[in-house]
């Protein structure tokens, strides 16, 4: 062994000994000494890895978290005996009924706020595509659009279009920053993906990545689980950990430096999400809301979406599986569902409100899961039934602390999540593709284009919500069975070399791609 390597190992050993003293005290105090059971059998590198992980855990907080979880499990919380009410009309606005004049007013107000640097977008991007049979983050998924774009690219291009629209309105360069909440599982892949794609031509400093927190997994007796001899079993702390993660990673400070006041939060897997929607921004500004949620009108009583409502006077989300049939099917005098506000997990917060929530202990949600573990003999075991408690918190648990909570109803053209593989035929990549192209078809046909037995994708760089198409599609008859990507001039100039794809695809009997330029 070289002298340099011996020196490095000695230095690591010294650091390990120093850390060991502090960690041993914490483990003794909180009855978790079993986490060092195999310490003597580990290599120097493995010891350091284990101690680094133990040093990152707040064991006092972990004990309190488990005690909270016990209380939740013991109570077996249900809605029985609680007063559940729909969202009052005073806190309910709708893009479907408020009228074109009001929509335009909100749109202009929102674009002004974006142009003044008061708005940021924040995407929840911690999920892997495991349920879809993929080992990549959901944001990197392509749903086989004519353009081949990934979900992340589509969202970022919507931001670029908003910057352009706001810049034209105010006559200046505009920056709309994007904050990306990742997880241990997705962070590095997303970072590399963005780097390799040059941040899809946004400035690197305007896309800020930060990780959500992790919680240890517990046995039913409160012991933290080892998944390997030198690895603690950990699980993401849920969307409700967003607020603390923002504080811990300097996101609040970065936003304050930029002058951000409003944060639009959305999930990466909703391909239809109108990122930093100016109309929603304008509505929240007018209502002076510190916390708001977009909703859709449920089309059936037990639809697979959470219900935004009041529970004992506090705003919350009641999952579709928790609400009783009696409540879910209640109707008003017009025969409409009383509990009609379905959550699509898109929210608007003020910066001040999010900072407050970072200091609040939100209600925990507990799940009993099967977590692989190392037994007392050091043998890796894979349980056949739940053996562990995972604790997480949800972003909507902050609603109850709002002093100006409102909802904003939108159409289904803003909601097409990707939760399942295509084999399920529901909330999957195939339905997301179909829904997006259906919306784009409506844009084209509204302007007189003809898409009979054909499909067209409208680039977000060209149009955010159907605007700016004009003469581009008016009167155009798209060839039957064609698959068209309607690009911005910027894209067309960049992608001209790809025009050969049309003849190539025809040669191999593949649906051709027709590119309409400016």
Describe the protein's architecture and organization:
The protein folds into 3 domains: 3-56, no CATH class; 84-419, Spore Coat Polysaccharide Biosynthesis Protein SpsA, Chain A (Alpha-Beta Complex), CATH 3.90.550; 429-516, no CATH class. It has helices at residues 3-29, 44-55, 59-75, 100-115, 151-170, 187-196, 242-248, 251-258, 278-287, 325-328, 351-357, 429-446, 489-495, 501-507; strands at residues 84-86, 92-94, 119-124, 178-182, 207-211, 214-216, 226-228, 231-232, 234-236, 262-267, 291-297, 307-311, 314-318, 341-350, 364-369, 373-374, 380-381, 388-393, 405-410, 455-458, 483-486, 513-516. It is globular, with a radius of gyration of 26 Å. The protein starts with a helix and ends with a strand. α1 (3-29) packs parallel to α2 and α4 (100-115) packs across α5 (151-170). An 8-stranded mixed sheet has the order 2-19-11-14-10-3-4-5, sandwiched between helices. The chain is 33% helix and 19% strand. β12 and β13 form a beta hairpin. It is an alpha/beta fold and 518 residues long. It is built from 14 helices and 22 strands.
Please describe the topology of this protein:
Blueprint: H1 3-29, H2 44-55, H3 59-75, E1 84-86, E2 92-94, H4 100-115, E3 119-124, H5 151-170, E4 178-182, H6 187-196, E5 207-211, E6 214-216, E7 226-228, E8 231-232, E9 234-236, H7 242-248, H8 251-258, E10 262-267, H9 278-287, E11 291-297, E12 307-311, E13 314-318, H10 325-328, E14 341-350, H11 351-357, E15 364-369, E16 373-374, E17 380-381, E18 388-393, E19 405-410, H12 429-446, E20 455-458, E21 483-486, H13 489-495, H14 501-507, E22 513-516
Parallel strand pairs: 2-19, 3-4, 3-10, 4-5, 11-19, 20-21, 21-22
Antiparallel strand pairs: 1-12, 6-9, 7-8, 10-14, 11-14, 12-13, 15-18, 16-17
Helix pairs in contact: 1-2, 4-5, 4-9, 7-11
């Amino acid at each position: 062994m070289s002298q340099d390597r011996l020196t490095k190992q000695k230095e690591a050993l010294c650091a390990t000994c120093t850390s060991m003293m502090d960690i041993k005290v914490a483990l003794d105090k909180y009855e978790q000494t079993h986490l060092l059971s195999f310490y003597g059998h580990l290599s120097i590198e493995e010891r350091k890895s284990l101690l680094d992980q133990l040093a990152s855990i707040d064991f006092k907080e972990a004990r309190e978290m488990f005690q909270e979880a016990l209380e939740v499990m013991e109570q077996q919380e249900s809605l029985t005996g609680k007063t559940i009410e729909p969202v009052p009309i005073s806190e309910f606005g709708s893009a479907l009924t408020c009228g074109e004049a009001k929509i335009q007013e909100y749109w202009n107000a929102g674009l002004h706020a974006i142009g003044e640097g008061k708005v940021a977008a924040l995407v929840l991007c911690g999920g892997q595509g495991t349920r879809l049979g993929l080992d990549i983050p959901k944001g990197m998924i392509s749903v086989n659009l004519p353009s081949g774009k990934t979900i992340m690219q589509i969202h970022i291009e919507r931001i670029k279009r908003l910057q352009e629209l706001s810049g034209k309105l105010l006559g200046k360069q505009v920056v709309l920053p994007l904050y990306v909440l990742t997880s241990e599982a997705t962070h590095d892949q997303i970072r590399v993906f963005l780097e390799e794609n040059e941040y899809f031509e946004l400035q690197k400093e305007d896309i800020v990545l930060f990780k959500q927190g992790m919680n240890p997994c517990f046995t039913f007796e409160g012991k933290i689980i080892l998944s390997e001899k030198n690895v603690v079993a950990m699980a993401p702390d849920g969307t409700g950990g967003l607020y603390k993660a923002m504080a811990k990673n300097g996101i609040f400070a970065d936003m304050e430096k930029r002058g951000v006041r409003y944060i639009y939060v959305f999930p990466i897997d909703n391909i239809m999400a109108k990122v930093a929607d100016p109309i929603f921004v304008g509505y929240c500004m007018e209502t002076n809301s510190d916390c708001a949620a977009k909703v859709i009108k449920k089309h059936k009583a037990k639809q697979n979406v959470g219900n935004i409502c009041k529970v004992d006077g506090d705003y919350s989300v009641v999952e579709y599986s928790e609400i009783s049939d009696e409540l879910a099917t209640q109707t008003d005098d017009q025969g409409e569902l009383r509990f009609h506000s379905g959550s699509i997990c898109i929210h608007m917060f003020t910066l001040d409100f999010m900072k407050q929530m970072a200091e609040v202990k939100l209600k925990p949600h507990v799940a009993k899961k099967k977590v692989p573990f190392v037994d007392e003999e050091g043998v890796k075991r894979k349980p056949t039934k739940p053996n562990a408690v995972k604790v997480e918190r949800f972003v909507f648990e902050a609603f109850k602390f709002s002093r100006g909570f409102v909802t904003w109803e939108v159409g289904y053209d803003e909601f097409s999540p990707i939760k399942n593989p295509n084999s399920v035929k529901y909330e999957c990549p195939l339905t997301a593709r179909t829904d997006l192209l259906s919306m784009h078809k409506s844009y084209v046909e509204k302007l007189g284009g003809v898409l009979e037995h054909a499909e067209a994708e409208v680039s977000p760089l060209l149009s955010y919500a159907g605007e700016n198409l004009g003469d581009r599609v008016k009167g155009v008859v798209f060839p039957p069975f064609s698959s068209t990507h309607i690009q911005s001039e910027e894209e067309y100039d960049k992608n001209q070399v790809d025009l050969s794809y049309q003849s190539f695809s025809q040669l191999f009997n593949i649906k051709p791609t027709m590119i309409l330029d400016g």
